[in-house]
Amino acid sequence: MTAEARVRTRFAPSPNGALHLGHAYAAMRAHDFARERGGEFLLRIEDIDGVRSRPELVEGIFADLRWLGLDWDGDVLFQSSRLAAYDAALERLKARGLVYPCFCTRSQIAAAGAQPGPDGLVYPGTCRLLDEAERGRRMRNEPHAWRLDMARAIAETGALVWHDLEAGDQPARPELFGDVVLARKDAPASYHLAVTLDDAHQQISHVVRGRDLFAASHVHRLLQALLGLPVPLYLHHDLLAGADGRKLAKSEGAAALAALREAGEDGAALLDNLRKNHLPSGISRVHASYSLP
Ligand code: GLU
């Protein structure tokens, strides 16, 4: 196997809450996928959400992973160190007329009758229609995001396909998302832009992540085509759910790994139980569907 053909996966937590069992499972899936193939497992900290990101949680993430026995290769990549790369990509898209500034607030978007899409409301295109004079004037005075002009982008790339190792070939359906945000008012890059650029930068061969991000891969495939990036293979694994049947989530107060670690539990044993599907009581694996709305 050549160096280029090496398997490389990553775990990419956002430090906006303590890691929980769902993260342990996701990190294990990406780690084991690489290790079983003699490959590398990388760690990326997605810390550019200025509102929700909490730097003090990063050390806890490292401690949790070590406690679980999950070792990563090379240096940790912090998204906050990659702002120039995100900006350069956005500038390239600006120069090609593929993005436009958007001044709308969430409530304006909802009031404009936006319909739900795979990832929140589909933007109704209000700011796409502004003329250049108004755009220039408002850009000087108002905070703005940058949105992808989806119809133009698709006209450039034509039909695209990506591949999930379990779900098979997926004709890309980025149009379902509408004009997605690539740079936010309050963050230098959106999740979609940063993750796509970083997976290429870290030469990730297999994006192994939870099925909650399955739909997002349609947008990532489009961005890869627009920016001339390599196309990784994907594996969107099942998720862990709590007693209520819903995916474990930081926001729902899923038990933090740090609490178990500090209580003296054996992290490697816990991870091995997850591997063998011996789940703690009240926890189950859910095979969320791949279907799009
Ligand atoms: N940072 C994302 C999260 O914590 C994961 C990104 C990804 O795996 O693509 O949900």
Automatic annotation (TrEMBL):
All residue ranges annotated as the Glutamyl/glutaminyl-tRNA synthetase class Ib catalytic domain in the record: 7-275
PROSITE patterns for this protein: AA_TRNA_LIGASE_I
Protein name, UniProt field: tRNA glutamyl-Q(34) synthetase GluQRS
Family affiliation: Belongs to the class-I aminoacyl-tRNA synthetase family.
Pfam families to which the protein is assigned, alphabetical: tRNA-synt_1c (PF00749)
PANTHER family: GLUTAMATE--TRNA LIGASE (PTHR43311), GLUTAMYL-Q TRNA(ASP) SYNTHETASE (PTHR43311:SF1)
Gene3D superfamilies per the UniProt record, alphabetical: HUPs (3.40.50.620)
InterPro entries: aa-tRNA-synth_I_CS, Glu/Gln-tRNA-synth, Glu/Gln-tRNA-synth_Ib_cat-dom, GluQ/Sye, Rossmann-like_a/b/a_fold
This protein's UniProt keywords: Aminoacyl-tRNA synthetase, ATP-binding, Ligase, Metal-binding, Nucleotide-binding, Protein biosynthesis, Zinc
Species for this entry: Blastomonas fulva
